[in-house]
Design brief:
There is one protein chain. The strands form three sheets. The protein has a ten-stranded mixed sheet with strand order 10-12-11-13-14-19-18-17-15-16, sandwiched between helices. A seven-stranded mixed β-barrel has the order 1-2-8-6-4-3-9. Strands 5-7 form a two-stranded parallel ribbon. It has two domains: 2-149, Carbamoyl-phosphate synthase small subunit, N-terminal domain (Glucose Oxidase, domain 1); 154-363, Rossmann fold, CATH 3.40.50.880. Helix 6 (186-194) links the parallel strand 11 and strand 12 (197-202). By secondary structure, the protein is of the alpha/beta class. Helices cover 24% and strands 31% of the residues. Bound molecules: glutamine. Glutamine is lined by residues 45, 223-226, 251-252, 293-296. Its EC number is 6.3.5.5.
């Protein structure tokens, strides 16, 4: 069955249906990962977006039981060049096209995803619609232009109930971390459980007082979808946590931390999405290749009016990738040290968090 991708510029790309039949609007972004499509599909940070995979062959190892990053597919749409016809892997349970169809994700295949990526790189992120109804495509252009990214995306993906997870690694004294969930990826939870942390995951609307009542050793600020400035409740909560406990934030959590402390964020032209972003630790000068998925970033000049300073930088475009508080045990990174998908060479950051919590506990022992 035919399908089309209509962009807000009026450009129409024809392909074939891949996944669910229907029509889906979203913000079209590209991801440069060669593998990891299952994690991309299920990463809540992609809520509201249609992902174009730049790698030309997708689906070749199917879908397995372990790689889901949340309970369901989160992308609005999925755009690939060639969809693997005969996927094969010993852990494969389903193929990708059936998974998309069952999840109701409208996808399209047969698109020159590298050409589409060049369009996005030139114009910046674009709104688009994928449709299997290909009769009157030009009528969709004004509709795409009128479509807005939903403002309440975090509310859609955050947990509605508090839940706990045990540490999966035995360490000398297990640390209790409250996770403020703005749309967390499972791999972050796993990485923290593996670091010996007991977790209490709380909804994004939880207040600082409610969090402190749980008597955590530290608080973690998760990743999540959308514009950080629209997550006002989270920003308020983070302000209330400063000086009370060690805090570590990733991606959206990192952006919210800077907003909470008087910094600013901006929307990038086309963002960083993929598993090959070089980041330098400015202290050790060490460079790690990181996994990323973000379209907003901290405005570096705005940090002057905050107690934060830059600790990590992206070597492709020099953007801010990590910050630390000058006095308090508070730090955050824009990238994904838990990987999934992507390299796991930044896992050491969870150890740094453990270290901060240990020092805090020693100082505040009664
Ligand atoms: N992965 C994330 O947490 C993404 C953060 C934010 N929604 C952005 O796109 O920049």
């Amino acid at each position: 069955m035919k399908a089309a991708l209509v962009l807000e510029t009026g450009k129409i790309l024809m392909g074939e249906s891949y996944g669910a039949i229907g029509e889906a609007f979203g913000e079209v972004v590209f991801n440069t990962g060669m593998t990891g499509y299952q994690e991309v599909l299920t990463d809540p940070s992609y809520s509201g977006q249609m992902v174009c995979m730049t790698y030309p062959l997708i689906g070749n190892y199917g879908i397995n039981r372990m790689d889901d990053q949340s309970e369901k597919a989160q992308v609005q749409g999925f755009i690939v060049k060639e969809a693997a016809r005969n996927p094969s892997h010993w852990q494969m349970e389903k193929n990708l096209s059936r998974t998309l169809a069952q999840a109701g994700v409208v996808g399209i295949k047969g698109i020159d995803t590298r050409a589409l990526t060049r369009i996005i790189r030139e114009h910046g992120v674009l709104r688009g619609v994928i449709t299997t109804e290909t009769e009157h495509l030009s009528e969709l252009i004004p509709k795409v232009k009128a479509w807005l990214v939903p403002a309440d995306v975090v509310a859609k993906v955050s947990t509605s109930e508090i839940y706990t997870l045990p540490a999966t690694q035995t360490v000398k004294s297990s640390q209790h971390v409250v996770v403020l969930d703005f749309g967390i990826k499972k791999n972050i939870l796993h990485a923290m459980q593996e670091s010996g942390f007991r977790l209490t995951v709380v909804p994004h609307t939880t207040t600082a007082t409610q969090i402190l009542d749980l008597q955590p050793d530290g608080v973690f600020l998760s990743n999540g979808p959308g514009d950080p400035k629209s997550v006002e409740v989270g920003i308020e909560t983070i302000r209330g946590l400063m000086g009370e406990r060690p805090v570590f934030g990733i991606c959206l959590g990192h952006q919210l931390l800077s907003l909470a402390l008087g910094g600013d964020t901006y929307k990038m032209k086309f963002g960083h999405r993929g598993g090959n972003q070089p980041v330098q630790d400015l202290n050790t000068k060490r460079v790690t290749i990181t996994s990323q998925n973000h379209g907003y970033a901290i405005a570096e000049e705005s940090l002057e009016q905050t107690p934060l300073y830059v600790t990590h930088r992206n070597l492709n475009d020099q953007s801010v990738e990590g910050v630390k508080h000058r006095e308090l045990p508070v730090f955050s990174v824009q990238y994904h040290p838990e990987a999934g998908p992507g390299p796991s060479e930044s896992l050491y950051l969870f150890d740094e968090f453990a270290q901060l919590m240990q020092e805090w506990r020693a100082q505040h022992a009664t």
